[in-house]
Amino acid sequence: MAAQNEIRAKPVPRPGLWALTVVAVLVAAFLAWTFASSPNVHWDVIANYQFADAILQGLLVTLKLAVICEITGLLLGIGLAVMRLSSSRVLSWLSGIYVWVFRSVPLLVQLVLWFNLGLLFPHIGISGTSFVVETNDIITGFVAAILGLTLHEAAYNAEIVRGGIAAVDRGQVEAAQALGMNRALLLRRVVLPQALRVIVPPAGNQFISLLKNTSLVAFIAGGDLLSTAQNIYSGNFEIIALLIVASLWYLLLVSITSFLQGRLERHIGRSSAHSTKPRRDEPAPAAVAGA
Amino acid sequence: MSTLLPESVQEAGILTIATDAQLPPNNFVGPDGKTIIGVSVDMGNAVAKALGVKAKFVNTKFASLITGLQAGRYDIAISGVTDTAERQKQVDFVDFIESGQVFIVPKGNPGKVDSQDAMCGKTLSLVTGTISVDLAEAQSAKCVQAGQGQVTILKFPTVADALLQLTNGRADANIANLGKAAYQSKESGGKLEVAGKPFATSYDAVAVKKGDKEMIAALQYGFEQIIKDGTYQKILEKWDVQDSAVDKVVVNGGDSLEGSTS
């Protein structure tokens, strides 16, 4: 629009903004320096433990749990959201109950219950046959962690996906129905692609909280990143140093996640660029509606 | 009133003591669900009284226990903490309980864990950061060297979580000092029992901010008083841990005991 007649506009001078920027930078630098130079932050200890075997093993457990449970939790969550919005009252109701239960029961309680399932059911299988196994042999700490985290994540993801689907304009659905699309096709072609743009930011948030929720597996001898750091500091009392070691790893993991999330958002945004904000160098959307 | 305590404590008349109330019989929440009771609490109260002040207990988690001490939020910490050479780099210890370690096992000792060598190939369910973990790890290395199975160690944040795995059948034994083990097996209602002879003697200690000489001297004096007048012995008897008595409180004695660890 403005591209045709270039106007040489001088920005309005904003001394207040400049002053504020300088103050903010100074405060940030002061805080960073105070923290870094504090004699109570033992940087030598931090350097010693940052790449220690035990810490790296804990990091691997945290990564494994987060990635596996994100995938399983998201798949189950999508299923639950579709059930919730289905025309079958029973399915919708069951999905609602699931979300209610698994958002209500604290994750910690769930993990401990799964891990100690053997107290309630010492054996799993069909009685009277040879298909009977010890519960403790099947529900290892890792399996209990996967179960608890997946079921918990699924409940939250179901709500995120449901919100995304609900955000798609009703008119779109009606139009697709008028074209004779069946429900499955309508979901795949019309609803989900649009819902995805609404779903990705909160889903990314949810993944980051999952990354840190893995630390609750300490209660079932899980050995994740944070509990490994805790194991070490309860022995040597270098509490702050070990907490910083763990935090630096979480910072890195969350940075990578945020980067990937940004890429994903841009990717999804591109496919629907014409329907949202027009780019400056492109004609207005109305003009390409027929293209 | 004693003038040994740091001035700030004398002025306030209150000795603030941090404890992580999940370790019976040392420091744990009583049947009313809120009052902290146990050996540590009785000792803290008695020592404070001998020094002419009142003890105030604050229930906090382990991480805040030590950092709070270093930051001056609490005067001292009494929380069933074991004095070790490594920990002495961060805090000072006034040692007031001396005890060997034994095994807590499920009734009948199905895993037959009754000595350190019997740990080979077995699963131990322990509390994070306790010296029991160091002992089990050291034994595991010995087992492997002798061509026997390693010791599988499961680590939990609290005693309750660790002992649950004995009842659950996931672990063969837990290691605790004699007093704690006797108390736990008694409280379990016959589900757990004590096994083996005491080994690896260690001190439970009051943790003091590193270099707080005034506080250390005051605590030593306080303990001497309650040992002399018999209060100390009475407290140990009350909690059925009289075998853990020391003749004399020492400062940072964990180091000297390490040699006797076998």
Automatic annotation (TrEMBL), chain A:
Alphabetically sorted, this entry's keywords are: Amino-acid transport, Cell membrane, Membrane, Transmembrane, Transmembrane helix, Transport
Q: Which CDD domains match?
A: TM_PBP2
Occurrences of domain ABC transmembrane type-1 (ranges): 59-261
- The UniProt transmembrane annotation reads 16-35, 55-83, 90-115, 239-260
Quick one: where's region Disordered? 270-291
Q: What is its main location?
A: membrane
User: How does the protein associate with the membrane?
Assistant: Multi-pass membrane protein
UniProt family annotation: Belongs to the binding-protein-dependent transport system permease family.
Name this polypeptide is given: Polar amino acid transport system permease protein
From TrEMBL, chain B:
Solute-binding protein family 3/N-terminal domain: residues covered: 14-243
The UniProt entry, under InterPro entries, shows: Solute-binding_3/MltF_N
Q: Which Pfam families match?
A: SBP_bac_3
Under the heading Gene3D superfamilies, the entry gives: Periplasmic binding protein-like II (3.40.190.10)
> Which keywords does the record carry?
Signal
| Alphabetical list of CDD domains matching this protein | PBP2_MidA_like
What is the name of the protein in this document? Polar amino acid transport system substrate-binding protein
